[in-house]
Structure formats: C-alpha cells, structure tokens
Amino acid sequence: MSTARTALALSDSGHGLPIAFLHGYLLDRTFWSPLAEVLGPGMRSIVPDLPGFGESPVLPGVTTLDAMADRVVQCLDALKVERAAIVGLSMGGYVALALWRRHPTRVRALVLADTRAVGDTLEGRTRRDQMISMAERDGAEGAMRAMMPNILGATTRASRPKVVAAARAMMLRQPVNGIVAALRMMRDRPDQTPVLATLTVPTLCLVGEEDAITTPTEMTAMTAAISGGRLVHIPASGHLAPFETPEAVADELRPFLGGLG
Ligand code: MLT
C-alpha cells in the first residue's frame, strides 16, 4: 500500500508495469479487488477512489472529466510513475480517454471496458437530471435503485447472489454529494469520439456480452474507430464485467498487459 501523499485515496500494490485502474459511477476502488486477486502481484496496480467516491472526497473545482483526469495524473506524479497502462470501466473509461487527450505521454496502453466515447444525448441529460433529483431525495439508495436493473448481466442477477450483494453494498456506501457531482460531470461531459482516432497506444476494448448500458453493438462501433483497436466479448457478464467474471477478464488482460513489457 502507498504511503505517498496523493490527491486521491488509493491502493498501490505489486511490482512491474504500472497499471492505473479507474472505476465506474457509484463504485469505488474495491470494485477492482476481485480482478486484482485473480491477476496476482506480477504487475503494479494503482487503484484510486475517483473524487467523490470511496475515501476520496468531492474536490473543489473537480467538476469535469478533464479535472478528474488531471487528479489521476497527480497521483502518478506523487508515486513517481512516468507512464502507466490505464484501465477504465464505464465512467472510468470516460476519464481514461480524457487522460489520453490531456496527457498522452503518461499513457502506455489503454483498456476501455464497458464504456463509450460519445457524450450524453438530450434524453440522457434529462435522465441525469432525474437521477440527481432521486439521489438528492433518496440518497445512495435512490441512485442504487436506478442502476440495479441494468448494471449487472442477466446471468449474474440469476446465479451470482454474492456478486449482486457486493455490488449493491458498494453502491449504497457512496456519499450523496459524490454521486450528484459525478452525475453532473457525466451529464456535461464532451463527446470524445474524435479522441478515438488519435489513439496511438495499444488499446483493448472489453464488453460484457450482457451489458445493457454500453452494449456490445455500441462498443463494436467505438472499437472500429480506434486504429488497431480490438474488442473482446466477456461471456455471461454485464456492465460490470471485471467484477462479475474477473477470471474471464483476467484471461484477456494478462496477454495484453504482458505484451507491453
Ligand atoms: C458507469 O457505470 O460508470 C455509468 O453507467 C456511466 C454512465 O452512466 O454514463
């Protein structure tokens, strides 16, 4: 574990290629624990709580994807990590693309998991406003209720009760001000589609075959815009593929990350 002073609460463990793991909305860094356990200590895992989640407070001025990406880079600075592979899930993938856009020299490779490059549609923005009202009224419970029907795959909902319970508990412990700040940030984020064509680092895209939020169809189109990009489908998994089926995700990550040297 790190003792360095960083902008965000984080775990820093293992040795070798530095990899920063960025979690999604309504989650925290413990999201990556099942995957980290399967991957083992053969790589250096840097796992922050993004602002407003887990043990990282909402940070004044950090209201945009760009500011969030800058905070992640501040963590790399504090840990004296020059370049890292960035693995981002969903909202973490939005941050990963912003990090590449702003700090390309800090990125060794990208893994974009269950995510998208486009911004919110008008309808999506209205839905964000409804979710903000729901979170302000009902707290994390309201936010969790809004996500639960779609966030896990059908197989997980039907046959992995421990994963369902752990995901639910993680969502319920997130602070309301962090939830609202993230919803506003996602609502107002830019369309990052043009960024895809600028990617010159090895990029692997991952999607749970049962992902109902960033669907395999959507991720196929996103991957096609990345020169040399490759999309792998994770069977029997939904939007939280690395948490639902960490073994299958690790089987894809190992050769990709191992090939980076
Ligand atoms: C996430 O899992 O981070 C969210 O689904 C992202 C979003 O709501 O756009």
Physical arrangement of strands within the biggest beta sheet: 1-3-2-4-5-6-7
**Mean pLDDT reading:** 96
Write the element-wise H/E pattern from the N-terminal end onward: EEHEHEHEHHHHHEHEHH
Low-confidence stretches: none
Quaternary state of the chains: single chain
Level of helix content? 40-55%
Q: Indicate the overall shape.
A: globular
User: What summary fits the major beta sheet?
Assistant: 7 strands, mixed
What is the helix tally? Answer: 11
How far apart the termini lie comes to: 23 Å
Structural class estimated from helices and strands: alpha/beta
Radius of gyration: 17 Å
Number of strand elements: 7
Beta content comes to 5-15%
Distinct small molecules: D-malate
Structure description:
This protein has 261 residues and is an alpha/beta fold. It is built from eleven helices and seven strands. The chain has a seven-stranded mixed beta sheet, with helices on both faces. Helix 1 crosses helix 11, helix 2 crosses helix 3 and helix 4 packs across helix 7. The longest helix has 30 residues, at 122-151. It is globular and about 50 Å long. The mean pLDDT is 96. D-malate binds next to loops.
